[in-house]
Amino acid sequence: MADPMKIRATTLGDSTEVKVLMSHEMETGQRKDAQGQTIPAWFIQDVIVTLNGRTVLSAQWGTAVSKNPFLSFKFKGGAKGDKIAITWTDNRGDKRTDETVIA
Amino acid sequence: MDEMRRRLVQSGGGMTLLGLLLAAGWLKPEYALAQVQTWNKAAFDTHTLADTMKALGGGDPAQSKDIVFFQTPEIAENGAVVPIGVTSNIPKTESIAILIEKNPNLLAAVFEIPTGTEASISTRVKMAQSSNVYALVKADGKYYVAGKDIKVTLGGCGG
């Protein structure tokens, strides 16, 4: 199980900014270990961000997204106290969901 | 920060059943992949610019000056962590894809932008070497593209 995400969501005017730092190896499948064996790819494929259950951003990622991925974006219509939930699914089928409230 | 650490300790021992099955080798990774319906495998497996655009449905996108890179360096010292920010000023932007021309697999990420969300995202990507980076934007059913040349001092995909 992966470590929790760090999520920060703040409103400024009518726009809410979400910043996420996920904890994931994001192994490309290109690297080899000391024995020359290819290290299998292991990476986040799907990310969904919801505001009170409504999707505000969804993403599909390949292996080129950096280790411990960072993501930031803005949306309209969020208010202080609204719930932001972020879920990722990796290529092994592992999932993690973390939540925060807009500050 | 304290709360974050506490949650981290709590979750440390957990591992999903699927993860365990995979670790034990009972489940083939292909099966796990099949669980994720939405992931566009065809597009992520492409190796040329034309193929990737085609797999995304882009075909022959129009060059656009309304797609702007922000927080994106001209020269990236570390190819493992290259910040990329893309803003599309094209009305009705539906999705933004980031393509790195000289990576083994071109497609880095696709972001779906629902109504109400600003067509502006920022993330960090790995770059194997200096390359053109493209942002492919789908807006109102049409495709637009903009490119930026990023020099990499130290590649991010090697061993």
List the helices and strands and how they pair.
The complex is a heterodimer of chains A (103) and B (159).
Chain A: E1 6-12, E2 15-21, E3 44-51, E4 54-61, E5 70-76, E6 83-90, E7 95-101
Antiparallel strand pairs in A: 1-2, 2-5, 3-4, 3-6, 6-7
Chain B: H1 2-11, H2 17-24, H3 29-35, H4 41-44, H5 49-55, E1 62-63, E2 67-70, E3 75-78, E4 82-88, E5 93-100, E6 107-112, E7 117-125, E8 131-139, E9 142-154
Parallel strand pairs in B: 1-9, 3-9
Antiparallel strand pairs in B: 2-4, 4-7, 5-6, 5-8, 8-9
Number of strands of chain B: 9
Helix share bin of chain B: 10-25%
Oligomer: heterodimer
End-to-end separation of chain B:
33 Å
Rounded Rg of chain B? 18 Å
What are the secondary-structure elements of chain A, in order, as H or E?
EEEEEEE
Integer average pLDDT of chain B: 81
End-to-end CA span of chain A: 27 Å
- Low-pLDDT windows of residues of chain A: none
Mean pLDDT of chain A: 93
Q: Helical residue percent of chain A?
A: under 10%
Number of continuous helical runs of chain B = 5
Radius of gyration of chain A: 15 Å
**Helix and strand sequence of chain B:** HHHHHEEEEEEEEE
As residue ranges, the low-confidence spans of chain B are 8-15, 24-37
Strand residue percentage of chain A: over 45%
Strand order of the largest sheet of chain A: 4-3-6-7
Give a written overview of the molecule.
The complex is a heterodimer of chains A (103) and B (159). In chain A, 0% of the residues lie in helices and 50% in strands. Chain A has strands spanning 6-12, 15-21, 44-51, 54-61, 70-76, 83-90, 95-101. The two termini of chain A are 27 Å apart. By secondary structure, chain B is α+β, with helices and mostly antiparallel strands. Chain B has helices spanning 2-11, 17-24, 29-35, 41-44, 49-55, and strands at 62-63, 67-70, 75-78, 82-88, 93-100, 107-112, 117-125, 131-139, 142-154. In chain B, strands 1, 3, 5, 6, 8 and 9 form a six-stranded mixed beta sheet that branches. Chain B has a three-stranded antiparallel beta sheet with strand order 2-4-7, with no helix packed on it. The two termini of chain B are 33 Å apart. Residues 8-15 and 24-37 of chain B have low confidence and may be disordered. Classes of the chains: A mainly beta (103), B alpha+beta (159). At the A-B interface, strand 4 and strand 5 of A face helix 1, helix 2, helix 3, strand 6 and strand 7 of B. Strand 4 (54-61) of chain A pairs antiparallel with strand 6 (107-112) of chain B, so a sheet runs across the interface.
